[in-house]
Amino acid sequence: xxxxxxxxxxxxxxxxxxxxxxxxxxxxxxxxxxxxxxxxxxxxxxxxxxxxxxxxxxxxxxxxxxxxxxxxxxxxxxxxxxxxxxxxxxxxxxxxxxxxxxxxxxxxxxxxxxxxxxxxxxxxxxxxxxxxxxxxxxxxxxxxxxxxxxxxxxxxxxxxxxxxxxxxxxxxxxxxxxxxxxxxxxxxxxxxxxxxxxxxxxxxxxxxxxxxxxxxxxxxxxxxxxxxxxxxxxxxxxxxxxxxxxxxxxxxxxxxxxxxxxxxxxxxxxxxxxxxxxxxxxxxxxxxxxxxxxxxxxxxxxxxxxxxxxxxxxxxxxxxxxxxxxxxxxxxxxxxxxxxxxxxxxxxx
Length: 349
Hints:
Elements: E1 12-16, H1 23-29, E2 34-40, H2 47-57, E3 61-68, H3 73-81, E4 89-94, H4 96-109, E5 113-117, E6 129-134, E7 137-142, E8 148-152, H5 153-157, H6 161-188, H7 194-208, H8 215-235, H9 244-255, H10 262-277, H11 281-291, H12 293-299, H13 304-313, H14 324-327, H15 331-340, H16 342-347
Helix pairs in contact: 1-2, 3-4, 6-7, 6-8, 6-10, 7-8, 9-10, 9-13, 13-15
């Protein structure tokens, strides 16, 4: 029986230039005067100073500063155990590891979490999961959506371009993820949440309306990735955002001698999977053409051998997770595409 869906969503969302300097004001308005800040180790100056100044201007006390060097579960739990008394919110500032650690600390403490990404390399900053390392292996652990998301578009625009293109790669994966979900419905009767698919699908077209790496493009990319996180929360799974393209990336993480940025792996896998699915290939290709995604990959090509290993392993990554890779033996098709498709040939050696 279908039941009404009720979820928690971010209450405060700011995506504009200069938002980082208003962080203290946003916390103060939300009633938080004593917080813990988890920040990426080595975050480029002057970003840490801007965070400190913003808090001081509003007399918001940073009762703990957690410099995040790794996203291990044990160190994250220790950071939670060491939280000073009276902390009413957790603030994560920086890249994916810091945000995942901050999110999980907030989840353990049942505290509001404020996400302040300084780059947009994937949709993890507003997802209901934390990616942590457990005994040397990456695991996605349950967490909660942030109470607040503060994206300084000027800061994210100033991040290395490869990080933004990684975010573009993770965004277009929603095309193939939704297609895989529909394949699972027809082949296995897996239920589909129509609103989650509608939201996830719409985010891609939002960014495609202005597929540029400028302030407006960064704003659209940020809100698109944010809404993908909410789509996952709506249906209680990663299905709206993750399909066979993510399985390939997870397999690469496990087997490659040098795994690359998540969104770069996912982006190339999305194009490849779209050909197997027979849908959205030209849309994906055009977006990658216009943003320079292909050029970044071609400058540091992947290994064909490692990708073939990953494609063979991918269907076994998630038991019972039906995708186009489950529907047939796609290995011969993939091998042919890696050696013949004009765009993919540039990406492999």
